[in-house]
Amino acid sequence: MKVSRIMAASLLIITLLATVFQTTGFAGGLKIGAPMPAADVKMKNINGEMVSIDDIKGKLGTAVIFSCNSCPWSVAWEERITEIGNSYMGKGVGVIQINSNDPVVNAIDAFAGNVKRAAKLGIKFSFVADNTSNVARAFGAERTPEVFLFNSENTLIYHGAVDDNAQDAAAVKGHFFIEALDEHCAGKRVSLAETKAMGCSIKFRAGS
Amino acid sequence: MARILLSVMAAIVFGINGVTLTASDEEGIKFAQSDSLLAVDSQQLLKIIRDSKSELTLLNFWATWCKPCLDEFPDIVTLSREYKSDDLSVIFVSADFENNLPAVRQFINKQQLTYVTYYKSESDNIFINALNPEWSGALPATFIYDATGRLLDFWVGKRTLEELKKVVGKYLNVTPKL
């Protein structure tokens, strides 16, 4: 009797722990269907204003892209990210790019670097500095670039790569981010909800 | 003796310096110089791991533009030299773009490696999921496999030599053979 009570208690604890952690996917990243975290955290935008993800939400949903100015993979994809972001913010999708890197690691990731980069690329959407790296932590973001697409109810519907070829835009076969956006904007379920790509690890600031 | 002659002939014919070969050529040039750099996809890599004669295989993904990768690379090389090949094999796979392979060669030549290294030649999405669906794709990433190719451990981020020795020691349950 005592043993079965211990086993039942153990099962309950395991179930509770699984429930608590069910919103995280691979390596702690958000799982598809998870709610948007840190939506109200204010971050400094390239125009000097403090902006949260909530502030830029679109009627159809929100795209959150963790990227930076220093990682060769982010640089390889940045023109495509800019084109996608500029295009879909006009289609009812809020777009925000977040740089969570500690500029102590690379000064180009300081706020001034965001401003310069945005000007060079012609970014029209919000590009903010996550000055504690805590927004990246809340998302479970690990690398740059890393894309999170939420629907109008702030539920995650796509997570992963921009496309399947960082090196050569002309050789892309899987336009993962665009296809997710198109399917969602057409009222369809995103057919390929999770993809992977290599990238630089996010250079987190010390925890706060 | 035949193997040595074959590898010497292969080295002369292929001019190992700066030549990129596929993993399917690996058997013929197994003892080639350390600056050989082979293209590899996920299935080829998993086969190489399964075919390893070592008790443990440590697989490390790195790139020349990844500072933490470059920081820990020499420590992993040191680690590989502290164990007998029966105990530990080390496999490095670069995630550099193909137009950056000269920089990859330059870096690995400086490390004076005595074994073949690789660069990824497959789409990230397929490659990453084949290695470990839990891996986000961030670098550096390190995997530990047992002699059958079963994944024992995996982490993202750099480790010190002491931390690496601790992990390897745990799975080998032996002290390094100097």
Describe the model.
The complex is a heterodimer of chains A (208) and B (178). Chain A is of the alpha+beta class. Chain A is built from six helices and nine strands, in the order αββαβαβαβαβββαβ. In chain A, a hairpin with a 4-residue loop joins strand 1 and strand 2 (50-51). The termini of chain A are far apart. By secondary structure, chain B is of the alpha/beta class. Chain B has helices at residues 2-14, 42-51, 67-82, 101-110, 124-131, 161-172; strands spanning 20-22, 37-40, 56-62, 88-94, 117-120, 138-139, 141-146, 151-156. The longest helix of chain B is centred in the middle third of the chain and has 16 residues, at 67-82. Chain B starts with a helix and ends in a 6-residue tail after the last helix. The A-B interface holds A 26-27, 29, 71-72, 76, 105, 142-143, 146, 160-161, 164-167, 173-174, 176, 195-202 and B 61, 63, 65-68, 95, 97-99, 120, 123-125, 128-129, 133-140, 156-157. Strand 9 of chain A pairs parallel with strand 6 of chain B, so a sheet runs across the interface.
Quick recap of the structure?
Chain A is of the alpha+beta class.
